[in-house]
């Protein structure tokens, strides 16, 4: 039931569109010379849905769900990591930065799973085995709340990815020092946001 709420459907659309956007960039050398334009347009549309799902959930509280507090950041992580790996594959982003992003998010997801698993563990009345309700929103009242630094980091990551995609356009020339500076900045916020959760 929670999965069918409008904000969650918009979030799911971002997850589904992410591999297609990745494919568009990797197959950049196909017969469609305007592929980067389509990719950037899809990227902007996905960004709009990211804003829209949050706006709907805040404006119409009845559409907000516990599941959505997990699904929205998960969609962001899927998008950021798939796109960063894609841009590393195309030679746009450095491997060390992409590796840092991936390791950080895998660690965050693993930690979140462990905490929720611990908090929602139940004991059966008839034996000692555990009945885990990790992703059952009816039995998992814990909500995910991102820190301010984490939100800044996500914004910078998406901005860097946007520049990387825009740089594929034939009429866009992004100075290398801009990309380098933003790479260093996002590396710093990635480390800082990780330490903030300790």
Radius of gyration computed on alpha carbons: 19 Å
Per DSSP, the total helix count is 6
Spell out the helices and strands N to C: HHHHEEHH
What is the number of domains?
Answer: 1
From the 3D structure, determine the CATH topology. Answer: Four Helix Bundle (Hemerythrin (Met), subunit A)
The CATH architecture comes to Up-down Bundle
Strand order of the largest sheet: 1-2
End-to-end Cα distance, whole Å, is: 34 Å
Beta-strand share of residues: under 5%
Could you say which overall geometry the principal axes of the C-alpha atoms support? globular
Question: Percent range for helical residues?
Answer: 55-70%
The assigned structural class equals mainly alpha
Uncertain runs with pLDDT below 50, 5 residues or more? 123-134
CATH class type: Mainly Alpha
Mean pLDDT: 82
Total beta-strand segments: 2
Largest sheet: 2 strands, antiparallel
Main location: membrane
Protein name: Cdp-alcohol phosphatidyl transferase
Transmembrane segments: 6-26, 38-58, 78-103
GO molecular function: cardiolipin synthase (CMP-forming); CDP-diacylglycerol-glycerol-3-phosphate 3-phosphatidyltransferase activity
Model description:
The protein has 198 residues and is mostly helical. It has one domain (2-196): Four Helix Bundle (Hemerythrin (Met), subunit A), CATH 1.20.120. 69% of the residues lie in helices and 2% in strands. It has helices at residues 6-26, 35-59, 66-89, 95-120, 148-166, 176-196; strands at 122-123, 130-131. The chain has a two-stranded antiparallel sheet with strand order 1-2. Helix 1 packs parallel to helix 3 (66-89).
